[in-house]
Amino acid sequence: MMIPIDTLSLFFAAALALALVPGPDNIFVLTQSALYGRRAGLLVTLGLCTGLTVHTAAVTFGVAAIFVASALAFAILKVIGAGYLLYLAWCAFRARPNSVEGEGLGLSGGKLYSRGVVMNITNPKVAIFFIAFLPQFADPALGSLSAQMMTLGFLFIVTTFMVFGSVAWFAGFLGEFLRKSERAQCVINRITGIIFMSLAARLLMATR
Description:
Layout: H1 5-20, H2 24-36, H3 38-60, H4 65-69, H5 71-94, H6 109-121, H7 124-133, H8 145-178, H9 182-204
Helix pairs in contact: 1-8, 2-3, 2-8, 2-9, 3-6, 3-7, 3-8, 5-9
């Protein structure tokens, strides 16, 4: 049996609302797109969505439950994620104005994509959110729970790509302005560094 359309519609609305709420991921997309252009923001978005496929699979096959049950596993992943954010903050503070004159100059597509993947996978809150959120819309009476989880995860990823892709596209207009002003580039790099540091602190203080 298929998931009823009314359940899918409700799930889509909830996923859309969640993607629109300002958080680490969409702020990350906004800053990267503003600094390096629309293409960079879209590649980061694609990386984030790839990370969501990992979380979907983890929830579907029960791996995410480890992070709910194990404080050590949660803490390790949290520290790794915060460390990566601090590394990005350091890169932002060291960035020179002329490093953002072109779309993604100095950063390959693979590096931008991997930033999104790492950013998402190393956030244990996403795994715990998925394990709490997806099952609410699954019904054992409709058949395979795994198939339902994968379907819901896919819909969540599509919704996220739509929202974050829009953020990346419109933030690109800001990037066009920034590339004309070295002073503005310096300011946004500092702001970006502070944002990454704040996100790292927030992640370190996160609890299960």
